[in-house]
Amino acid sequence: MIKTQRIAASVVEKVLAGASLTAVLQALWQLYPALSSQQRGAIQDLSYGVLRFYGQLDALLGLLLKKSLQDRKLYFLLLVSLYQLEYSKTPSHAVVDHAVSASRFLGGSKRIPGLVNAILRNFIRQHECLLQQVDGNDVGRYSHPQWWIDKLRTQYPHDFQAILAANNKRPPMTLRVNQRKISVADYQALLDKKEMKTQLLWCSALQLVQPVNVKELPGFSEGWVSVQDAGAQLAAPFLNIQDGMRVLDACAAPGGKSTHLLELGQVALTVLDNDATRLARVAQNLERSRVKAARLICGDAAYPAQWWDGKPFDRILADVPCSASGVVCRHPDIKWLRRERDLAQFVVTQQKILNALWLILARGGQLLYVTCSVFAEENQCQMEKFLCHHSNAQALSLSGMSIMNGQLLPNMYHDGFFYTLLHKT
Ligand SMILES: C[S@@+](CC[C@H](N)C(=O)[O-])C[C@H]1O[C@@H](n2cnc3c(N)ncnc32)[C@H](O)[C@@H]1O
């Protein structure tokens, strides 16, 4: 555990210095190929956990320290240890012992192990009182940056606490059953036999009670199922595709929605993304799903002149780049890496993409605007502006589900998404 604590502390340090958690972990697995899958799991668990509750843990540490810590490595090791004491099942004496031993590897003053011991034991002793104090401050209570909390409080006065709580939960694992290969009921029965309990959320969305390694899923490599959040599974059906249509998935990688579109209809699909590395993942996903091939293009959705063949599309899926504020439970680093000013940049990019795609949609065609954001600037405000400037655009109603004004809020079953289906008259 000493090693996993120390490595997790270094992961969190890198993320809080500005790197993405996924990228840091990927680099780490390459650097330490000898780590066992158990050690990897533990490092991942600790890093995700600390970032999920960073606001609270940092506030607790602030209360426990007499003055601010100069030694950053020690600071991150203490954050990891506090997370373990508060949220893991590891016995507290083991957490403290390992933290004290790990601190000896940090170098520095001989007094450090004693300091670590004292801080962590004080936390255990004063637990209730410290938690109460931390709860008195927004960042300590909700573990999100203050600007984020303020924005949600303004935009969702009734729901902001539920959204923040959902963001701090571990995400569920949801499958999308490829009904061209097997019915949902038959697949659920197969999982049942393997004692993998599931809950049917909607259409083909089967949620696992306990996440599993995809290798354990029957028919995964044959494309019987894909892993996809239930909220994301709404996109492809919303587009009302019919066989023979020309369809563009404009910001497609890694291809979760592209494969779904191909499962739903025999369409001529163009898959576009401006990131070649991510586009390669679409190719892998298409291959695994064994759905009819699509045309893959690396290009910028905001500049169709560079890649478009001149034939209008009947349907366009615009799953635009966004703040990703609806998928925080899967990417807890996002809330600490985003700055409020980033939003304005996303809004401009989204607007450029949307305006450009509108020109290549056929008359009578439909475009689905999607974000995985909960911020109104990227969603309702963006759509209001678009409708105001395009007299040939109508927003069609999206019925069913718990979508209000296009917004699906994150909860324990799914991530947060925004959907608007635009019809070109
Ligand atoms: C939200 S992700 C798409 C997720 C994908 N639709 C799925 O369901 O698997 C947004 C994607 O847009 C791509 N992107 C960003 N800016 C773009 C642009 N100007 N043109 C095309 N793709 C872009 C990113 O590389 C990223 O893969």
From TrEMBL:
Its main location: cytoplasm. S-adenosyl-L-methionine binds at C251, A252, A253, P254, G255, G256, K257, D273, D300, D319. The active site is at C372. It catalyses: cytidine(967) in 16S rRNA + S-adenosyl-L-methionine = 5-methylcytidine(967) in 16S rRNA + S-adenosyl-L-homocysteine + H(+). Pfam families: Methyltr_RsmB-F, NusB, RsmF-B_ferredox. It is an enzyme of class 2 (transferase). One of its GO terms (molecular function) is RNA binding. Keywords: Cytoplasm, Methyltransferase, RNA-binding, rRNA processing, S-adenosyl-L-methionine, Transferase. It is found in: Cytoplasm. One of its GO terms (cellular component) is cytoplasm. One of its GO terms (biological process) is regulation of DNA-templated transcription. Residues 163-425 form the SAM-dependent MTase RsmB/NOP-type domain. It comes from the Bacteria. Belongs to the class I-like SAM-binding methyltransferase superfamily. RsmB/NOP family. Specifically methylates the cytosine at position 967 (m5C967) of 16S rRNA. This is 16S rRNA (cytosine(967)-C(5))-methyltransferase.
